[in-house]
Write a structure and sequence with these properties.
Blueprint: E1 4-9, H1 17-22, E2 25-32, E3 35-43, H2 44-53, E4 60-64, E5 71-80, E6 87-94, E7 101-110, H3 114-119, E8 122-125, E9 129-134, E10 143-146, E11 156-158, E12 169-170, E13 177-182, H4 185-213
Parallel strand pairs: 1-4, 2-6, 7-10
Antiparallel strand pairs: 1-3, 2-3, 4-5, 5-6, 7-9, 8-13, 9-12, 11-13
């Protein structure tokens, strides 16, 4: 069973919600397909516990005192202060447990890449999340991708290499890159220097030939 969190009906709307935040209350909304949006609120202490325990798009439940049954929802959006990063608003999307939803799910690189220790390679992650589709109770909080296969420099992983749980469909294009092992920065700089030296030697040789012809 998903975790359940209590919310209260909210009567304070618009710019006046700043008063709620100062009092330690987070304004929120519940919306969904064919549903009228419901303004709610919850204590910041509870909101913090909820957000720390669950990522976006993870199935949870919210319960209004005035309703007999809890609502199955996912956190669809979190409004934050642009300067402090403090949570200012939460959007809950009420789901139909029998219909699939789409969500951007974070990619977590796990394990160690041998090429990093053996050759000093640099692990570069180029994609932070992928778009997937699944039933609400099958939606993963994150997708783990092992980098243990990176045994040589310049190896790479793409979306097509991802293994997802049963019932999850990846919608991001298969050829999009996820991560790669780049050559050590020092090695790249040395190659650039060597190419520059060769160019200078070639230019000097050319100048010498011109001088001898004169």
């Amino acid at each position: 069973m998903p975790d359940t969190y209590a919310v209260e009906p909210r009567t304070v709307l618009g710019k006046k919600v700043a008063v709620l935040r100062r009092e330690g209350t987070i304004p929120a909304n519940i919306y969904g397909r064919g549903l009228e949006s419901v303004a709610v609120q919850m204590p910041w202490a509870q909101a913090r516990i909820m957000l720390n325990a669950h990522g976006r798009n993870t199935l949870i439940e919210v319960k209004l005192d005035s309703e007999s049954a809890a609502r199955p929802v996912v956190v669809r959006d979190i409004g934050r202060d642009p300067v402090s990063g403090a949570v200012e608003h939460i959007d809950f999307f009420q789901v139909d447990l029998t219909r699939t939803i789409q969500a951007n799910v974070p990619i977590h690189l796990v394990d160690e890449a041998p090429a990093v220790h053996t050759y000093g390679g640099v692990l570069v992650q180029s994609l932070e999340s992928i778009l997937v589709e699944a039933l609400p109770n099958a939606m993963p909080e994150a997708i783990e991708v092992s980098v243990a296969i990176f045994t040589e420099l310049e190896q790479s992983l793409s979306v097509s290499d991802i293994v997802v749980p049963a019932g999850v469909t990846v919608l991001t294009a298969a050829d999009v890159g996820i991560a790669q092992i780049a050559r050590p920065r020092v090695e790249v700089e040395e190659e650039v220097v060597l190419e520059g030296e060769e160019g200078e030697e070639g230019a000097a040789a050319a100048e010498g030939e011109e001088s001898s012809e004169e």
